[in-house]
């Protein structure tokens, strides 16, 4: 069996993919739109040392395995990557093939892999984990995210909406759910590049404070705030949300931060946000969730080591329960799963348009990490492996919620 013949045994013989290897062997469907090329012995060494998704991801990130054709389309062709369920006979044939090509030497993880140290979700470790993903290059993120510089799920009110239009709609939906009006004070935790803060200030006349653990994000946001003439209303600080000293905010938005908090810390997280609000103030939590409790909270090895170190995803019911038990009455909830798939498709298209510049800016390995993770996450939202939920809560004023009888957003 040639090296290319290893892959049909792993993925199945009916996948619409052609496999090629540097030894000249071919397997799979000849002339398929998607091709997988094993370019180096190290590709199979990675797979041999780390069977499953991590080994394949390492081989792709380092360029020892290449995908010809659209990566998202390629991923849709494959079932879950696993060595479980392979018969002993097939396993022995695979081992013989690999051993015959001397592919069993040790291989280390690529340089882009991050394995944080220290107490999980301590402020120091959280800061390093956030820096790994977000302190990459603001120019790189400008190419991927587009003019909105918003790195969270957009809301498409029309199928033909552009990504930037959909990000405006998302920010405005959050603002309207929070009931923002001129003169209010907003705290935005996990503020990123300041999109929500600037929207609240510019569109609603709100005094908005955003905080982020990324120094590059904070500097970019402050510059953008000054350029848009919003410095009297908006501010983004390089600060952990746990160290915000101000209180009595009229509203709190948490857009894409709860995924970094950790299951054990959710009760304290929501209690701390409730303590920042005045009675009658609202909080909107926007985060990625699992579809149900049968999934583990921690993501797969590729996402956890390359993309979001220490990230944890809980079911929407668990997030809502943590809110409900720690200072908030739940008033509204919705799933925007399909919107995140569209958002990721837009980001992926942006990356492809700027591929050569992106590689020059952040290096080929990091660019390939982003290409792979965004395509895989898009598929995850489409297949309901992950969801995106917005949950609106209110800190009661005695027994009064001060909410409209029906949603007015």
Q: What can you tell me about this protein's structure?
A:
The relative contact order is 0.11. The protein has helices at residues 6-11, 41-49, 53-61, 71-76, 88-100, 123-134, 138-145, 163-177, 195-204, 215-227, 266-276, 301-307, 316-324, 337-353, 355-362, 364-382; strands at 17-21, 26-28, 34-38, 65-68, 185-189, 207-212, 234-238, 249-255, 277-289, 329-335, 387-394. Helix 11 (266-276) links the parallel strand 8 (249-255) and strand 9 (277-289). It has 16 helices and 11 strands. Helix 2 runs antiparallel to helix 3, helix 8 (163-177) crosses helix 9 and helix 15 crosses helix 16. The strands form 2 sheets. It has a 7-stranded mixed sheet, with helices on both faces. It has 2 domains: 3-100, no CATH class; 123-394, Vaccinia Virus protein VP39 (Rossmann fold, 3-Layer(aba) Sandwich). With 409 residues, it is of the alpha/beta class.
């Amino acid at each position: 069996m040639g090296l290319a013949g290893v892959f049909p045994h792993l993925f199945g013989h009916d996948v619409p993919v052609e496999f090629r290897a540097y030894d000249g062997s071919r397997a799979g469907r000849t002339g398929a739109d998607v091709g997988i090329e094993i370019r180096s012995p190290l590709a199979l060494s990675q797979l041999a040392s780390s069977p499953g998704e991590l080994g394949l991801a390492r081989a792709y990130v380092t360029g020892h395995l290449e995908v010809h054709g659209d990566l998202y389309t390629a991923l849709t062709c494959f079932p879950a990557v696993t060595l479980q369920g392979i018969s002993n006979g097939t396993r022995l044939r695979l081992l013989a093939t690999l051993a015959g090509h001397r592919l069993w030497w040790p291989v280390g993880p690529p340089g882009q892999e991050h394995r944080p140290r220290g107490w999980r979700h301590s402020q120091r470790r959280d800061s390093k984990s956030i820096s790994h993903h977000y302190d990459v290059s603001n120019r790189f993120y400008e190419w991927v995210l587009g003019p909105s510089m918003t790195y969270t799920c957009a809301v498409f009110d029309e199928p033909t909406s552009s990504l930037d239009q959909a990000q405006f709609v998302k920010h405005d939906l959050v603002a309207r759910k929070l009931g923002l009006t001129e003169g209010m004070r907003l705290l935005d935790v996990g503020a990123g590049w300041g999109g929500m803060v600037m929207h609240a200030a510019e569109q609603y006349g709100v005094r908005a404070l955003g905080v982020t653990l990324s120094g590059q994000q904070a500097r970019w946001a402050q510059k953008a705030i000054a350029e848009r003439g919003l410095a009297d209303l908006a501010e983004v600080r390089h600060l952990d949300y746990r160290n915000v000293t101000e209180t009595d905010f009229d509203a709190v938005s948490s857009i894409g931060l709860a995924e970094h908090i950790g299951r054990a810390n959710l009760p304290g997280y929501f209690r701390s946000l409730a303590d920042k609000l005045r009675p009658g103030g609202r909080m909107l939590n926007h985060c990625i969730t699992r579809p149900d409790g049968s999934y583990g909270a921690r993501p797969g090895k590729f996402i956890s080591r390359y993309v979001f170190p220490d990230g944890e995803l809980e079911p929407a019911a668990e997030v809502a329960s943590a809110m409900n038990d720690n200072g908030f009455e739940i008033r509204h909830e919705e799933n925007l799963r399909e919107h995140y798939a569209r958002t990721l498709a837009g980001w992926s298209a942006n990356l492809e348009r700027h591929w050569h510049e992106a590689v020059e800016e952040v290096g080929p390995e990091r660019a390939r990490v982003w290409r792979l993770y965004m395509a895989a996450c898009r598929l995850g939202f489409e297949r309901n492996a992950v969801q995106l939920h917005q949950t609106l809560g209110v800190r009661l004023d005695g027994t009064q919620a001060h909410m409209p009888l029906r949603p007015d957003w």
